[in-house]
Amino acid sequence: LGWKFYDADDYHPLENKKKMEEGIPLNDEDRIPWLCALHDILRREDTSRQDTILACSALKKMYRRVLIGGASAIESNHPEQPGENPALKILFVHLDGPKDIIAARLEKRRGHFMPLELLQSQFDTLEPPSAPENFITVSLEKPLPEILLEIETAILRG
């Protein structure tokens, strides 16, 4: 697509990375500042009219609201921000698949701070997107080219 790409894992503070390396799941207090920083990146790119893809495990509805609306979305329960900072338009792609497929992929990943032992905590935290959120669900059981085509088609459809 020629869009700018960010991996949210690159923006975790050192404390979060250390916690995960020790096998301790992150909680909301750990994640919210990280998500706010990611929102700021998305806001900056949107302001400069740069189309952007962010790979991020936005596991909870609240986390997705923070990505859309920033810190104010935490208190308001709505992603919209008044005045000059309207909510970002984001299409969330929920990559859905059985735990064994995801575990196999995690085992192949080298040099990453999140150990396989934390996968269950991710499933425990997960709140799959639902209406009225703007999302698509894509099965991880499909071949990679099909997954990419499905995502690209949804993005281009707007």
What would you say this structure looks like, in words?
This protein has 158 residues and is mainly alpha-helical. It has one domain (4-157): 3-Layer(aba) Sandwich (Rossmann fold), CATH 3.40.50. Helix content is 46%, strand content 11%. It contains 7 helices and 4 strands. The longest helix is centred in the first third of the chain and has 20 residues, at 28-47. The model is unreliable at 79-83 (pLDDT under 50).
SSE inventory with pairings:
Layout: E1 4-7, H1 14-21, H2 28-47, E2 52-55, H3 61-69, H4 72-76, E3 92-96, H5 99-108, H6 119-125, E4 135-139, H7 144-157
Helix pairs in contact: 2-3
Summarize the structure.
The protein is mainly α. Helices cover 46% and strands 11% of the residues. The relative contact order is 0.15.
Question: Which terms would index this structure?
Answer:
single chain; 158 residues; mainly alpha; Rossmann fold; two-stranded parallel sheet; 7 helices
Task: Point out poorly predicted stretches.
Answer: 79-83
The CATH class assignment is Alpha Beta
CATH architecture: 3-Layer(aba) Sandwich
Largest sheet: 2 strands, parallel
How many beta strands in the DSSP annotation?
Answer: 4
Structural class: mainly alpha
Beta fraction: 5-15%
**Overall 3D form:** globular
Separate helix tally: 7
Q: What is the CA-atom radius of gyration, in angstroms? A: 16 Å
What is the H/E string? Answer: EHHEHHEHHEH
CATH topology description: Rossmann fold
The N- to C-terminal Cα distance equals 13 Å
Looking at how many chains there are and whether they match, the oligomeric state comes to single chain
- Provide the residue-averaged pLDDT: 89
Helix content: 40-55%
Q: Tell me the name of the CATH homologous superfamily.
A: P-loop containing nucleotide triphosphate hydrolases
The domain tally reads: 1
Give the strand order of the largest sheet, numbering strands 1, 2, ... along the chain: 1-2
Protein name: Gluconokinase
Catalytic activity: D-gluconate + ATP = 6-phospho-D-gluconate + ADP + H(+)
Organism: Quiscalus mexicanus (Great-tailed grackle)
EC number: 2.7.1.12
